[in-house]
């Protein structure tokens, strides 16, 4: 596999020897990954606001689950629609729409005075998160050279975790300054409302930054706009390579029909293509291992086993920082050892650490109606939880998004992303919505399920997942 050369600060070499304008590539990737930041921020802001939501809306466990998980229904719809809409309107246009949805959601959730209104605006935000979750990785994969695509696509996961951590930091600062998440802050309004309103700032940055980047050249070729695509590809890879790249892309597209959902079926057997099953396994099991319980319910979880609200919010920040470091390690490894080995390492590591958490929570006692971890069990649970987060963000966190953005053939990429993205968010909803009720019944059994899912994911990866390291998108097979 070719590596990036040191031809200059703004240029490198792709795997086929083409000169790459790395400054332009880096600028495009930087803008696109703001979508990942918004994905993380909008998902993570709920962590730390639940006491305020419960107080304002008088929520039951069912109500808490619905308010937290409502965004995920919007995510499923947004992810399902985005892939197809991106084939019609373009990747960039749909990402711009998602940025506007982030702004609307931030304003509405912060101002909501009933649970119903809150859920509606969280659904709107979910549409934006779902669209960004599938389009930002695929956009990056479509404008970057194959030999560094994994590293650049992995930046998306770093930005997701940075967004989550940004939300955790903002929530902590607001709650700490006000005294608690429910205490009054600016304009006499409680701090938890400002936690949602803070999102307007990065959402606005995302919107205006998107206006500065070009459309995906692969989308332009699919729409017959070869001249525009050639101009972008020439700027990316040098003036002598644009036409050849356009020809490669066009050769990979079926000339007889436009992309449609029937492309997901084998033309002979009419059964779902194996590559889609592989994508569904990645999408669903990334959620079945329970990672978003840490990101959505971390504050509540740690308070439930004896930590204060202030300490719980600090633990969230620690988990976010460790996640970023793990993602940096993934970037260093993904184009060296490949996608599949990282997935296997992650599955094994998560199975062990989740097993330890299952044991820890099985020892919990009830003190004054609240769970409590005795003696050294609390620190053990804290260490295991953060090791679990590290293993996830070294593997399944970034690798799933990288592979969904690159593993499908050009002809079926939009449709396959729609289905895989929808499945990912439905799985996320099922896990997040069920957690409050499941945890009330048995926190150890809940984590036992996540541990079992990690074990199963190891064997599914061995059987179904094929390595995509270093392959051009036009070489992907269904």
UniProtKB/TrEMBL annotation:
The keyword Transmembrane helix applies. It comes from the Bacteria. One of its GO terms (cellular component) is plasma membrane. The chain crosses the membrane at residues 20-41, 61-82, 94-113, 119-140, 152-174, 194-213, 275-297, 317-334, 341-359, 379-404, 416-435, 441-461. Its main location: membrane. Residues 28-469 form the Major facilitator superfamily (MFS) profile domain. It is a multi-pass membrane protein. Signal peptide: none annotated. Keywords: Cell membrane, Membrane, Sugar transport, Transmembrane, Transmembrane helix, Transport. GO terms for molecular function: transmembrane transporter activity. It is found in: Cell membrane. Pfam families: Sugar_tr. Belongs to the major facilitator superfamily. Sugar transporter (TC 2.A.1.1) family. This is MFS transporter.
């Amino acid at each position: 596999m070719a590596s990036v050369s040191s031809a200059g600060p703004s240029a490198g070499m792709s795997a086929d020897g083409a000169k790459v304008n790395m400054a332009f590539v880096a600028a495009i990737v930087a803008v696109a990954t703001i979508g990942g930041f918004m994905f993380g921020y909008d998902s993570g802001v709920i962590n730390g606001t639940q006491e305020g939501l419960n107080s304002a809306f008088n929520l039951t466990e069912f109500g808490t689950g619905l308010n937290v998980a409502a965004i995920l229904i919007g995510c499923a719809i947004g992810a399902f629609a985005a892939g197809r809409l991106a084939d019609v309107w373009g990747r960039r246009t749909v990402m711009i729409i998602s940025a506007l949805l982030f702004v609307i959601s931030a304003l509405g959730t912060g101002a909501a005075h009933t649970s119903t209104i809150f859920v509606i605006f969280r659904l709107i935000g979910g549409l934006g998160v779902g669209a960004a979750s599938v389009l930002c990785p695929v956009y990056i994969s479509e404008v970057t050279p194959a030999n560094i695509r994994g590293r650049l696509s992995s930046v998306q996961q770093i930005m997701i975790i940075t967004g989550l951590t940004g939300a955790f930091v903002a929530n902590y600062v607001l709650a700490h300054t006000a005294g608690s998440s429910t205490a009054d802050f600016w304009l006499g309004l409680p701090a938890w409302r400002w936690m949602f309103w803070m999102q307007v700032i990065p959402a606005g940055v995302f919107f205006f930054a998107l206006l500065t980047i070009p459309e995906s050249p692969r989308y332009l070729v699919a729409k017959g706009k070869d001249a525009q695509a050639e101009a972008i590809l020439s700027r990316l890879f040098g003036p002598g390579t644009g036409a050849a790249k356009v020809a490669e892309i066009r050769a990979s597209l079926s000339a007889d029909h436009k992309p449609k959902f029937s492309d997901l079926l084998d033309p002979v057997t009419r059964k779902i293509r194996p590559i889609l099953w592989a994508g569904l396994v990645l999408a669903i099991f990334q959620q079945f291992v329970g990672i978003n319980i840490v990101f959505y319910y971390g504050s509540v979880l740690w308070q439930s086993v004896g930590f204060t609200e202030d300490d719980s919010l600090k633990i969230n920040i620690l988990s976010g920082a460790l996640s970023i470091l793990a993602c940096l390690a993934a970037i260093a490894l993904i184009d060296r050892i490949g996608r599949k080995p990282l997935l296997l390492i992650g599955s094994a590591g998560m199975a062990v650490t989740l097993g330890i958490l299952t044991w820890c929570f099985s020892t919990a006692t009830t003190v004054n109606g609240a769970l409590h971890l005795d003696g050294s069990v609390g620190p053990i649970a804290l260490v295991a939880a953060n090791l679990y987060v590290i293993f996830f963000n070294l593997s399944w966190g970034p690798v799933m998004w990288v592979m969904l953005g690159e593993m499908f053939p050009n002809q079926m990429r939009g449709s396959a992303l729609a289905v895989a993205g929808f499945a990912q968010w439905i799985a996320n909803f099922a896990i997040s919505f069920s957690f409050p009720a499941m945890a009330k019944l048995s926190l150890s059994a809940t984590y036992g399920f996540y541990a079992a899912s990690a074990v199963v994911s190891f064997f599914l990866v061995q059987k179904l997942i094929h390595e995509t390291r270093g392959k051009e998108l036009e070489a992907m097979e269904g």
